[in-house]
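[Amino acid chain]
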Amino acid sequence: MNPTENRRARKQSPNFPRSRRVLCAVALTMTALAGLGAIPVAQAATGGASGYEAGAPTTATGKEVAFGPVRYAGASWYGGPTMWGRTTACGVVLRPSTIGVAHKTLPCGTIVRFVYHGRTVTAPVIDRGPYIRGRAWDLTAAASEAIGLEGVGRVGYQVAVEYARR
């Protein structure tokens, strides 16, 4: 039995106190809300005593970006030394520090916010793909590292409203 199954079995067993299950549920909810921006991370960690202001992403013209509803889809990461230095479908040279995503149909430059285990990253669409069944997104190595995605996972995402289909 792997550690995740072991934890799940303990939480569902009658010996696991109900109050502990409630605390776990509250902690998960707070983590998810902080990751979605409902509670700024700096305020959640310091009780609001921080002077750090996490501003909303802006476009090249300085206009703030508004995001649509959170949706969920399969994602993986791509890149690595064999791909560094190559040009993507949108004309971006892929480097180890490049933050971007690949999507099959969204226009190049579309801004997307990803949430995974309470961590967020905002990235533009810079490439086409993935071409594997069950996956909607390919994150660059830097973007996947920013949210802690190792391999394949299910991520929450929000597309910038100005690019949302009407």
In short: The chain has two domains: 3-46, 71-163. The beta strands are 71-78, 101-102, 111-116, 119-127, 137-140, 152-159. Residues 36-55 have pLDDT under 50 and may be disordered. Residues 71-163 form a domain with the Barwin-like endoglucanases fold (CATH 2.40.40.10).
